[in-house]
Amino acid sequence: MSFSLLSASSALASSRCTRTFRGFPVPRTPLLVGVLALSGAALGCDSTIDVVDGDSSSTFDDGGSGDDGSSTSPTGGSTDPYGTPCRYLHGTVTLPAWNGDADTYPDSVFSFEYGSKDLAIVHNDGDILYSENEFTVNMVVDDTSFIVDLGDVPLVDVPETIDPSLYPTGRFGDHDYVGAVVDHTFIIRTIDSETRQWAAARVIQLSPGASVTIEWVRGTDPEKLSVPTECL
Q: Model confidence over 69-100: pLDDT tens digits?
């Protein structure tokens, strides 16, 4: 185990986070893992975040601006058929491009699971990073997540599952990285020891290498993407 990973593990053990560390894409930037872990521990990470899938009694006021990933759906406090508040299933978010600085990293990462990029909420449990006009999804050592570019496909038409081997790979020859393209939709499969989920994101605004705005959806079924059309 590298020194950076030992630092990350030590920082996590000293915090009260309820999620395991997820930070910089470990295979590409191992020396920075400890930096982010220490900054996360400094935040306290002492709140418990419960995923609300299946709670039929839950409703939410979804009138957020979208800047932090919150839903901008006109359905207000609606839920999907399984009772999950729409703010956890659909929204928009703007991600500035990560510039390599640990202090700016959290603002460039988004969690579909929590519908947020607020580090105090997601506890470094991000699902997608925007940097150098690319999306990155492999965020931790036990992560086998992938992302593919579906092209100009409306969110309502995203397939339930896909075989990534049928799609072009990114610049490293795998499906961890893919270039951001305006009006393209990307499907994201998150698989690690904490999370199994399907999500999709459509690029609606893009300043290449500066920022990207995506409209996103997440399904409640861990094995397929059932687009929450009631929330769109």
A: 544 443 345 666 668 999 999 999 999 999 99
Write down the H helix ranges in the chain.
3-14, 33-42, 119-122
208: its two tokens = 């290449």
CA distances from 135 to 82, 146, 185, 214 (A): 30, 10, 12, 11
Q: Which of 154, 160, 156 is nearest to 183 (CA)?
A: 154
Mean pLDDT score, 206-216? 98
Report whether 19 contacts 123 (CB < 8 A): yes
CA distances from residue 157 to 93, 200, 225 in whole angstroms, order as listed: 20, 11, 11
Residue 204 forms part of a structural domain: yes
Which range marks the domain in which residue 85 is found?
52-231
What are phi and psi for residue 49, nearest 5 degrees? -110, 120
Q: What domain count does the chain have?
A: 1
Q: What confidence tens digit (pLDDT) does each residue in 175-191 have? A: 999 999 999 999 999 99
Is 212 among the domain residues?
A: yes
Six-digit token pair at 83?
């009772």
How many Cα neighbours within 13 Å face the side chain of 188? 32
| Residue 136 falls inside a structural domain | yes
